[in-house]
Amino acid sequence: RSNTIGLVLSDISNPFFANIAWAVEQAAGQAGFATLAGSSGEDPVRERTYIENLRSRGADGLIVAPAGGDYEHLFRLKAEGYPFVLLDRVFEDLDCDCVAVDNVRAAKAVCAALIAHGARRIGCIGGRMETSTGRGRGSGKITLGNTNETETGQTISTGRICSPPTRSTHR
Predict the structure, then answer these.
(1) Edge-to-edge strand order for the sheet containing 34-39?
(2) Burial readout 85-115 (b: 16 or more C-beta within 10 A, e: otherwise)
(3) What does the pLDDT average to over 19-31?
(4) Nearest CA to 44 among 81, 5, 89, 79?
(5) What is the mean pLDDT of residues 101-127?
(6) Cα atoms found within 13 Å of the Cα of residue 143, Cβ hemisphere only
(7) Is 155 helix (H, G, I), strand (E, B) or coil?
(8) pLDDT for 143 beyond 60
(9) Could you give the 3-state DSSP secondary structure of residue 26?
(10) Mean pLDDT on 152-165
(11) Under 8 Å between Cβ of 136 and 103
(12) CB 89, CB 131: distance < 8 Å
């Protein structure tokens, strides 16, 4: 054992992932583990490279926020029995441990709150639609928006769903 945990984040410049990195480092340190971290920049090839490098350096396990796209390497980790946990993004056909937000429920709650405050047109900037996170946020917004009428009879417009650019789209 190396007492090392590998942390592969999809975008360290995103405050959500920066806070996750800090929290993982704190918890790992309290348990006597060091953390080695990298950011894939939403690039699946770079993600695989980080995972291979962390494994070759003896990391005892990984926490991975996948970039999306091809994730065959995660199936291999599972088949080999290598310990890993997915963070924030999940794949329905990969049975593994994960820590994630219920994005559909969260998007519905946000839309309901906006409607309760009088919003009539709701848009969504919800992440890349190639990820479970982006799809969940968009789906929750669409599900609520497709009713086109709130409980009080107000008509709403579903507006647009936009995916913001990522660092990998600016290369």
Answers:
(1) 34-39, 4-9, 61-64, 84-87, 98-99
(2) ebbbbbbeeeeeebeeeebbeebbebbeebb
(3) 95
(4) 89
(5) 72
(6) 15
(7) strand
(8) no
(9) helix
(10) 47
(11) yes
(12) yes
Token digits of residue 151: 């409980």
SS (H, E, C) 90-136: CCCCCCCCEECCCHHHHHHHHHHHHHHCCCCECCEECCCCCCHHHHH
Residue recorded with tokens 């946990």: 85
Q: Is 151 helix (H, G, I), strand (E, B) or coil?
A: coil
Question: Which DSSP string do the residues of 38-106 spell out, in sequence order?
Answer: EE-TT-HHHHHHHHHHHHHTT-SEEEE---SS--HHHHHHHHHT--EEEES---TT----EE---HHHH
pLDDT at 28 over 60: yes
Distance between CA atoms of 95 and 125, rounded to whole angstroms?
29
Other CB atoms within 10 A of residue 9 CB:
28
Confidence grade of residue 12 (pLDDT, cut at 50, 70, 90): confident
pLDDT digits (tens, 9 = 90+) for 38-89: 999 888 899 999 999 999 999 999 999 988 777 788 889 999 999 999 988 6
pLDDT at 145 over 50: no
Residue carrying structure tokens 């796209």: 69
